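input
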Amino acid sequence: MWDMKRTIPVEEWPRSRTVLQFRLRDVPARTSRWWLVVHGGEVDLCDVDPGYDVTAEVVTGLRELVRVRRGTGPGRSCCAPGC
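output
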């Protein structure tokens, strides 16, 4: 999750607030929910609900998320530039 926070291309995101909620199915409940908040060129990663409306929710396993981030998973095409 911290890698995503560091590498989000904020210059390509809308200037309005975007909130991505991640629910990881295969990790302990206390560490299974994360919120990535992009707003005004800044990125925040929260492990508690920041209280904003969620723009999109990602429900997956940790292993699948890592594979997609590395470009080796089934969703690799969605991470391609220009997608």
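quick obs: The longest helix spans residues 62-70.
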